[in-house]
Amino acid sequence: MTQTERLHWLVAYLLDERDEHLGAQAPAGEGLYRLYRSLVNVRPPAEISDEYLRIEDAYLQGRLQERGIAEACEAESVGGLLLWRGDITRLRTDAIVNAANSQGLGCFVPCHGCIDNAIHTAAGTRLRLADAEELALRSRHGLPSELLTGDAMVTPGFNLPTRYVIHTVGPIVRGAVPNADDRAKLARCYESCLDIAAMRGLPSIAFCCISTGEFHFPRDQAACIAVRTVRTWITRAREEARPVPRVIFDVFDAEDERIYRSVLQGS
């Protein structure tokens, strides 16, 4: 199959699940991809055929090669930590951090611009299925069936270049400025993710800018908390002779890069 044939096959399968079909005026090119993405975004973590998963894997791996993989070694050392600007779904590392919601199943809004949506789309249908399995396992062990703010869980990366995705739920800033509880919970996100990375012996972890998008945490304050928390965690881990992963701060735009560079250089 060509990439176009795979995409048509995937869309037809997903529409058939909904008792819908591509009409004579079916979209092409980017329009067809957006339809596929929308169908994946809204699909619940229900059973799906092995054939679908095999074809989706081939399609997403092909798309990843077209987009290009970025290596962790491309990150720049700034103030003793690493900074990289780009799309985290292209970054080959041991773990990336997903800014999740409390449901823990990814974003269900078609083609939404959040990182949760981007990560689940690029990873493929397998990721939401793994989310559901992990949440069910947590529930069987007496843990909440949803992710609490500051909590984290880990799944494989599937069709992402990363080995694992660590999902964490940042605080939603309700007022004009974050309060003490918001700041503490954001710090806890970074600690929870680093704890998982250390427990699994992962050599590297890349953080997105947690809570600064849809959750409205001011970007400069969030960066200060992120850098301070990571540095404190690393110091403590070394004192306790625990594994310390290489930490990459991933930023997506020029403003975030400016903020992180300033914080990393100034502290």
Structure description:
It is a single chain. The protein is of the alpha/beta class. It has a single domain (69-266), classed as Leucine Aminopeptidase, subunit E, domain 1 (3-Layer(aba) Sandwich), CATH 3.40.220.10. The protein is built from 8 helices and 9 strands. A 4-stranded mixed β-sheet has the order 2-3-9-8, with helices on one face. α6 (180-199) crosses α7. It is globular and about 60 Å long. The protein starts with a helix and ends with a helix. The model has no long low-confidence stretch (mean pLDDT 95).
What is the compact description of this entry?
The chain has helices at 3-17, 30-42, 50-67, 115-123, 125-140, 180-199, 219-239, 254-266; strands at residues 70-71, 76-78, 81-85, 91-92, 95-99, 152-156, 164-168, 204-207, 246-251. The chain has 267 residues and is of the alpha/beta class. The chain has a four-stranded mixed beta sheet, with helices on one face.
- Average pLDDT over all residues: 95
Give the distance, in angstroms, between the N- and C-terminal Cα atoms.
53 Å
Number of continuous helical runs: 8
* Series of secondary-structure elements, N-terminal to C-terminal: HHHEEEEEHHEEHEHEH
Major sheet: order of its strands? 2-3-9-8
Give the beta-strand count: 9
Shape: globular
* Assigned CATH class: Alpha Beta
